[in-house]
Amino acid sequence: MNAWWNLFKKEIGIRTAVTGSQKTWAAFSVGMIALMTFMAYRYQSGIVTPLWLGIIYLHVFLPSVYLLISFGKERERAPLWFQLPQPGWKLIGAKYAAALTEMIGGLLVSITMFLWMYKVEKTALIERAGDDLFYLSGHVSYFRGLLHGSGLKEVFIFFFIALFIAALAVLVYFTALALSNRVGRLRWLAAIILIGAAMLVEYTFEMSPVYQFLFKWGHAFDWDGDPFYSGEMIWSLANLAVIVYIPAWLLDRKVEV
Q1: What is the pTM of this model?
Q2: 228: helix, strand or coil
Q3: Which of 100, 94, 88, 103 is nearest to 10 (CA)?
Q4: What is the 3-state secondary structure (H, E, C) of the chain?
Q5: Beta strand pairing status for 226-229 and 219-223?
Q6: For residues 66 and 102, is the Cβ–Cβ distance under 8 A?
């Protein structure tokens, strides 16, 4: 556990991915926040608030971007990372943890800015949007409700989707590395086709009566008006576990770098 914690601290400390150096990232973040705050107070255009809401939703892709750039930089800097005497799950798990930490930090800042800018631009938003303001005010109510423990289901779904997208991206990356000596420059296309074919087989299975019999049990909650079952949750978590495991397995087999 101590070895994994050291790997995680290394990831957070040097930020090998999207954030770059801490000073550069801090300067960029402060500059962007200051610019948007100035625009909101100075022009009262009603544009800054929905912009921050869009940034919040874009965080679903942050772990994917973080991980892909981080793996790319590890490969560029030194192949030694791929040959460290640590299990693949520890090496990759530390990067997943760092990516989620970055995501949580970014979300906290973005949600805070959204609520603040909404308060600043509320009058302008009412004048511009009229009844459409309900869309923004609904998000304000939701984010404030999180402080009281409500709406956690949506948070879980958001993080699950972000992690699932990231796991798929990492799977494509390591599959392409494993195929490097076999298909050369076509490794990315081959990896996408291979994984796409596997996902098509999975989708076909999920549309079958066998899947409904095995996993459509135990109503858990409604998702966009459709029931989501406990069996489907187990199936989804099992899929995620397999997708996360395969890159670690490939790394333990010393994929070609």
Answers
A1: 0.84
A2: strand
A3: 94
A4: CHHHHHHHHHHHHHCCCCCCCHHHHHHHHHHHHHHHHHHHHHHCCCCHHHHHHHHHHHHHHHHHHHHHHHHHHHHHHCHHHHHCCCCHHHHHHHHHHHHHHHHHHHHHHHHHHHHHHHHHHHHHHHHHHHHHHHHHHHHHHHHHHHCCCCCHHHHHHHHHHHHHHHHHHHHHHHHHHHCHHHHHHHHHHHHHHHHHHHHHHHHHHHCCHHHHHHHCCCEEEEECCEEEEHHHHHHHHHHHHHHHHHHHHHHHCCCCC
A5: antiparallel
A6: yes
Q: What is the pLDDT of residue 255?
A: 62
pLDDT tens digits for 185-225? 898 999 999 999 999 999 999 999 999 999 999 888 877 77
Residue identified by tokens 């790997």 is: 7
Q: Which one, of 168, 143, 148, lies nearest residue 236 by Cα?
A: 168
